[in-house]
Amino acid sequence: MTLRYLSSLTLSELERAARAVPYEQLPEELYPGVDVWIRRDDLLDPLISGNKAYKLLFNLIEAREQGAEKIITCGGAWSNHIHAVAAAGRRFGFQTIGIIRGERPKQLSATLQDAERFGMELRFVTRDLYRQRSDKDFLNLLGLDASSSLFIPEGGANLAGAQGAKFLARVIKETAPLHFDQVWLACGTGLTLAGVQAGLTDTPVIGVPVLKAGRSIFEHGMAWLKQLGGGSALEPLREGYECGGYARVSPELSGFIRSFERLTGVPLDPVYTAKLAFGFQAELKAGRVTKGKSVLLLHSGGLQGRRGLFS
Ligand SMILES: *Cc1c(COP(=O)(O)O)cnc(C)c1O
After folding, report:
1. Predicted confidence band at 4 (pLDDT cuts at 50, 70, 90)?
2. What is the best residue among 192, 211, 228 to mutate for testing ligand 1's pocket, by most ligand atoms within 8 Å of CB?
3. Are 60 and 113 in a shared domain?
4. Of 23, 63, 68, 106, which one's alpha carbon is 20 to 30 angstroms from that of 235?
5. Binning pLDDT at 50, 70 and 90, where does residue 142 land?
């Protein structure tokens, strides 16, 4: 398969790329009695991929309309969002600044090395300061010149980002090779879950959280769903597959990734999509997925982050 790069910052180019994303049927032996497919948004673009691409491009289209020249955002050392922002800034001609949690280490993570190589300016801030990232004057506190710039919150979690996830749902509706009874995806903030559910009103979208966050993922998701005006409620989350917490990789999860990849040929990232596939398989085994149904798993990308955690 040939990968094509997103070549311009327009909705029609995003749509072209999104419609070309393949759906693959997963081996029956893995999922007895259920027809399981995966949509490979990790293949949307070699550098700007997965759910982060949809959230980000909607933000960048807005930035372009506003005449912004500079994108300021924040994230951790292995952030898929930081990586995508740096790559997109390079490609579409924005200056980028990444505010990174913690001290600058002697050896940068592979993600941040890439980000610098793409031209992103990295600003390391203390954890205390980083905690204030949703404050109105966060950029002031850092002494950053915010003129002609757009600030995108961590992970692309704003209304434009949610609209990007809703756009993905419309593409799924129009390109799915069959009728899916359910769509399953990995949740961090729950924004993608809300956006996809908002756009797929007749299909239950089921989220598997990748961190222990109590009710907050569900509640955030509900708030976004309301803002997007789509449907009345989210499906209950399927919890218990956090494998020790955010970005933790248990030996069981490592083993799962290896066997899943051997059986399907589909690479997973350990932070998000591995927990999705692991959780889905466990729910199926426990009898909590109805037999005879067809299910779509969303591959939300994140493979660049594998380098730090799993090889
Ligand atoms: C960020 C991310 C998610 C989670 O998205 P939310 O909208 O925060 O729930 C899922 N998968 C991958 C690969 C991600 O990078």
Report:
1. confident
2. 192
3. yes
4. 23
5. very high
Task: Assess whether 62 and 78 both reside in one domain.
Answer: yes
* Residue of minimum CA distance from atom 14 in ligand 1: 302
User: Which atom of ligand 1 lies closest to the CA of 301?
Assistant: 13
Query: Residues 143, 166: one domain?
Result: no
Q: Over 60: is that where the pLDDT of 1 sits?
A: no
Q: Which amino acid is at 247?
A: A
pLDDT at 3 over 70: no
- 3-class DSSP state of 99: strand
Residue 3 lies in a domain: no
Ligand 1 pocket: which of 80, 217, 237 to mutate (most atoms within 8 A of CB):
80
Count of domains for the chain: 2
Residue 80 corresponds to which amino acid? N
State in Å: Cα 39 to ligand 1 middle: 15
Banded model confidence at residue 311, pLDDT cuts 50, 70, 90: low
CB contact at 8 A, 23 and 37: yes
User: Which residues line the pocket of ligand 1, CB cutoff 6 A?
Assistant: 50-52, 80, 155, 186-193, 269, 272-273, 300-302
Cβ neighbours, 10 Å, residue 87: 27
CA of 190 to the centre of ligand 1 (A): 8
Same domain, 93 and 185: no
4 found inside a domain: no
Is the Cβ–Cβ distance between 33 and 295 less than 8 Å?
no
